Predict the structure.
Amino acid sequence: MRKLVLTVLNTLMLVAFASLAFADDGTSAGFGLTALGLAIGIGLAAAGCGVGQGLAIRGACEGTARNPDASGKISQSLILGLAFVESLCIYALLVDLILLFVKM
């Protein structure tokens, strides 16, 4: 239940801040709401990816400590998983860059 509530709240926050970025018409001084939305968006993405990578590394270290013979397969899975997690942050960066150059 807790996971569902956190997922719903996170989704609502992301949708709310994305609408701030899209709502700015570019006539305000500087970047205004676009800059705020971009900063919050990439900040949340980087924080989420950092937490996910930390948990993955912790799990790999625990798995290697319990079964040192399986360290090769664990390392292989860890590198693949970290690549997938990092790609999510790169996608968020691309969305931010698209918003930045469209709103200029």
Notes: The helical segments are 2-23, 33-66, 71-102. The longest helix spans residues 33-66. The chain has a mean pLDDT of 83.
